[in-house]
Amino acid sequence: MPPTNLPISRFCRANSTRRQFLKNSAATISGLALSSCGWRLADVQSFIYTWAGYTDKALLDRFAEKTGIRVVADVLDSTETMLARLKVGVPQVYSIIYPSDYMVMQMKKLGMLTQLDRSIVGGLDRLKKRFQNPVYDPGNRYSVPFSWGTTGLIYNSEQFKEPPEDWSYLWKRKQELARRMTLLNDVREVMGATLRMLGYSLNSTSQQQVKKAYEKLEELKSAIASFTTDAWRSQMLTGELKVAMCYSSDANEVIANNPKFRYIVPKSGSALWTDTLVIPNGAPNPDAAYKWINFILQADVAASLVQRLGFATPLEDAFYLLTPKVRKNKIIFPAEATLENCEGVAPLGKFADVYDRYWTKLTSI
Q1: pLDDT tens column, 259-280
Q2: Contact 243/228 with Cβ under 8 angstroms?
Q3: Which of 31, 102, 204, 247 has the fewest CB atoms within 10 Å, counting from its CB?
Q4: What is the mean pLDDT of the chain?
Q5: Alpha-carbon distance 361 to 187, whole Å?
Q6: Calculated CA dihedral for residues 147, 167, 76, 115, nearest 10 degrees
Q7: What residues have CB less than 8 Å from 68, skipping those under 6 apart?
Q8: What digits encode the pLDDT tens for the residues 77-130?
Q9: Do residues 100 and 275 lie in contact, with contact meaning Cβ atoms separated by under 8 Å?
Q10: CA atoms of 266 and 167, how far apart (whole Å)
Q11: Which residue intervals of the chain are DSSP H helices?
Q12: Helix axes 101-109, 79-86, angle to 10 degrees
């Protein structure tokens, strides 16, 4: 057992996708034993709340060696789940949280975030220009971009004579793909992709446009095997599926070991997402939080994470530390023309209820 005056760390890494939830984390928060990890909550002094696949034992060990601080990493499944937990007092548990871009705006409006002390945070000037003044957090006053990627389609190249190029492919090949395709279990991603296919903004606030997207999805519903964010992986590998909507980071992981699969960003446009680091109001250890942020912003640390875990870094100097093979990986780092045709998912305020209403109708039996 480590000395009691040292913040104790333990990371239980699920074999899961970026969006899969570690189901026993609720027990962690409530103070139950972390039986699968070997530590009790009473032993723990600092937590982070992150996506699966964004940290590993090597990263946590390196941080502990550098700072003397050890951290528990809980895994979240969606920013909506995260927000719900923060509203019931979880901020007093976590020192660092990894919300997606649009959720930063919402959390900021709700007064949930600590404004960053720029005199403590170093390295923001080394971010790619795209990430230095994001629309979701002008000037990076409350958040630091950690990773980014796209949403697209992964498909089995051995099962297609003509590969998909756009979302419309799913409708055109509806009968051929019946029950052999999946869409994400995410209202904004699915509705947004359909809106883009129809020529509208991914963040449309037009009742008429959102209704058209819903009606288009209704046409496809009978052919969809399921709405899932993670189960597609095993189903693609076993041949149950031919194509699945997914995040680029997940696609890259699958394709690395299975070259028969391909990933495309649909030509009509898609989502460009950014996951960030924030310090919630009421964080129990803000000093450790700043140390974590500065550690992650080190070019060599960021580059080593990209090399091991396969997601894109927003740090310019870290990019040039990557091997040529990784830098040329178009799944992780798409061409600029591709990125220009993508949109970030933005908060919709009360209009989000319209999306949710149609989503409930779409996904109900």
Answers
A1: 999 999 999 999 999 999 999 9
A2: no
A3: 31
A4: 85
A5: 11
A6: 50
A7: 6, 7
A8: 777 778 887 787 655 788 999 998 988 988 999 999 999 999 999 999 999 998
A9: yes
A10: 6
A11: 25-30, 57-67, 79-86, 101-109, 168-172, 187-197, 207-220, 232-238, 248-257, 286-296, 299-309, 316-319, 324-327, 336-340, 352-363
A12: 20
Task: Determine contact, residues 170/181, Cβ cutoff 8 Å.
Answer: yes
Distance CA 103, CA 2 (A): 36
Distance of CA 168 to the CA centre of its chain: 24
CA distance 150 to 132: 18
**78 burial level (CB within 10 Å; 0-12, 13-18, 19+):** middle
- Beta-strand pair 10-11/72-76: parallel
Rounded CA-CA distance 358/190 in Å is 11
CA distance 219 to 209: 16
Q: Using alpha carbons, select from 268, 270, 237, 269 the residue that is nearest to residue 251.
A: 237
- Cβ contact 142:116 at 8 Å: yes
Predicted TM-score of the model (pTM)? 0.81
For tokens 């502990």, what's the residue? 64
Which residue has 């040329």 as its token pair?
Answer: 328
C-alpha triplet 248, 317, 273: angle, nearest 5°: 25
